[in-house]
Design a protein that fits this description.
Layout (H helix, E strand, L loop, with lengths): L3 H4 L4 H13 L4 H19 L5 E6 L3 H15 L4 E5 L8 H9 L4 E3 L9 E6 L11 H13 L3 E4 L21 E5 L4 H4 L3 H5 L1 E5 L5 H7 L3 E3 L23 E5 L7 H12 L4 E6 L4 H5 L6 E4 L3 H8 L4 E6 L6 H13 L3 E4 L2 H4 L5 H7 L7 E3 L3 H7 L1 H5 L5 H12 L1 E5 L5 E3 L5 E3 L12 H14 L4 H19 L5 H7 L8
Parallel strand pairs: 1-2, 1-4, 2-3, 4-5, 5-6, 6-7, 8-17, 9-10, 9-12, 10-11, 12-13, 13-14, 14-15
Antiparallel strand pairs: 15-16, 16-17
GO molecular function: ADP-dependent NAD(P)H-hydrate dehydratase activity; ATP binding; metal ion binding; NAD(P)HX epimerase activity
InterPro entries: Carbohydrate_kinase_pred_CS, CARKD, Nnr, Ribokinase-like, YjeF_N_dom, YjeF_N_dom_sf
Pfam families: Carb_kinase (PF01256), YjeF_N (PF03853)
Length: 496
């Protein structure tokens, strides 16, 4: 059963407003801190039953307050603890001061912590609110913990990770696990933060859903629960044209493999028919490798005009191995003018690097019919200002780019972000590292095309394709090739 807190992503600023509103509604803010700290202590005892000592590192704010609650709970459970503070705990304010006052035990300066074998570090220094580089004292502590290879349990987010962007601010703890509260923050799902957070436990500390909903934005973790209703349905009346006709543009005779991967992926992903549009000099090469995918010559304007007379051919993939930039721009213009849906990838994106605005204008006055699938380098060609803005998170870059281009945008990587022009954004977290192989992106483009041609809206088509691509990578396993990804694709009816 889907729970909102399982997929919701909130920025630290959003979470701050939620905490404020929760207190204003009559909830005890210290009661929330008490539940948070108790959850951390419970996770520590459950995960590290063999710990000789819990070294609780407390910061100068509410994250430190959570640490003092956790330290008291561990002490009451009979565990050996030692508490170290960054800054003078006597200067704490509000709930953190109350938590410190309730803890009965010595508190040492963080600079005095000497990590030792058998320690489990509970990192309650800064959490998700960090937006500046760490002080040198904290960096030295992190280095000492890493040198001893001690396990770390992070409170909210490992200290050193910017909660809004996932970037490391100088240095960061690498946690075995992180206990966060109510929902994930961008730092939990964006790299490198995601790799440093370890297993993320989301603990409901009791903030009502209505308060969360008031400040929740449009960012979620990509899961089937968010787009399953948009999946195409099969009935006894379904035939190949109901399932849609997808066309993929091929490159020249020496660059045909990428387009064939897209075409085969589109067919495997559910398109009723797939046609590879091939230059005549590449027909023999393509024909030698295709059976279930149809093949059609395409060189001239007359060829394209004849093709576009068929209204059933409504979705195209352009870019994988295409090579010819002038021709790519021309084809895109003709597809836009005739109301077609388009997945633009690889060379199709690069073709517009000198004038990205002309691409955006082609699709500006319509419903979302364009899906862009750039990796970071291709993204910088279309959106150089957004790529250069280090103050933006990957989620924010994708959202702004989708709005500018009126496209569903898939900003690829191990933390792929899918964004819609209306501000919705999903972060994918099921990708296998083995997907980082030649042709993987071509397969993804074909899956997106298949979903589009079966009638899914562009954003849902892209999000579901990215998720299926990730699941196929898991199924294919270590050492996979792009062909293995195609063969490992599950059917739509198998999506849970």
């Amino acid at each position: 059963m889907h729970r909102e807190i399982d997929t919701l992503i909130l920025t630290p600023d959003d979470m701050g407003r939620i905490d404020h509103d929760a207190a204003a509604s009559g909830l005890s803010s210290y009661g929330l801190m008490e539940r948070a700290g108790q959850a951390v202590a419970a996770a520590a005892l459950r995960r590290f039953p063999g710990a000789l000592r819990f070294a609780v590192l407390c910061g100068p704010g509410n994250n430190g307050g959570d640490g003092y609650v956790a330290a008291r709970a561990l002490q009451e459970a009979g565990a050996a603890i030692a508490v170290y503070a960054f800054g003078d705990p006597a200067t704490l304010k509000g709930d953190a001061a109350e938590a410190f006052g309730c803890f009965k035990g010595p508190v040492f300066a963080l600079a005095d912590y000497a990590p030792r074998v058998g320690d489990v570090v509970i990192d309650a220094l800064f959490g998700a609110g960090l937006s500046r580089d760490l002080p040198e004292t904290v960096i030295r502590t992190i280095n000492a913990v890493r040198e001893k290879v001690l396990p770390v349990l992070a409170v909210d987010l490992p200290s050193g990770i910017d909660g809004r962007t996932g970037q490391v601010r100088g240095r960061a703890f690498e946690a075995v696990a992180t206990v966060t509260f109510m929902c994930r923050k961008p730092g939990h799902v964006l790299l490198p933060g995601r790799m440093l957070a370890g297993d993320v436990e989301i603990f409901d500390i009791g903030i009502p859903g209505r308060v969360l909903a008031r400040h929740a934005g449009h960012s979620r973790v990509n899961t089937p629960a968010l787009w399953r209703v948009a999946l195409p349905t099969e009935t006894s009346a379904t035939h190949k044209y109901v399932r849609g006709h997808l066309a993929v543009f091929s490159g020249g005779a020496t660059a045909t493999g990428a387009a064939r991967l897209s075409a085969l992926a589109g067919l495997r992903a559910g398109a009723g028919l797939v046609t590879l549009l091939s230059p005549r000099d590449a027909l023999a090469t393509n024909a030698a490798h295709l059976t279930s995918v149809m093949l059609k010559p395409l060189d001239s304007e007359d060829d394209l005009a004849a093709l576009l007379e068929d209204a059933r051919l409504k979705t195209f993939v352009l870019g994988p191995g295409f090579g010819h930039m002038d021709k790519a721009r021309h084809y895109v213009r003709r597809l836009a003018e005739t109301g077609r849906q388009l997945v633009l990838d690889a060379d199709g994106i690069t073709a517009f690097r000198d004038d990205p605005g002309s691409l955006f204008q082609l699709f500006a006055a319509s419903d979302t019919r364009l899906v862009l699938t750039p990796h970071d380098g291709e993204f910088a060609r279309l959106f150089p200002d957004l790529a250069a803005d280090k103050g933006l998170s990957k989620i924010e870059r994708a959202q702004k780019a989708a709005a500018r281009s009126n496209a569903a945008l898939v900003l690829k990587g191990a933390d792929t972000v899918i964004a819609a022009p209306d501000g919705r954004a999903l972060v994918n977290d099921n990708a296998s590292p083995w997907l980082a192989t030649a042709g993987s992106g071509d397969v993804l483009a074909g899956i997106i095309g298949a979903h589009l041609t079966q009638g899914m809206p562009a954003f849902e088509a892209a999000a579901s394709a990215v998720w299926r691509h990730g699941e196929a990578g898991r199924a294919a396993g270590e050492g996979l090739t792009a062909e293995d990804i195609v063969n490992a694709l599950s059917g739509l009816s198998e999506i849970g």
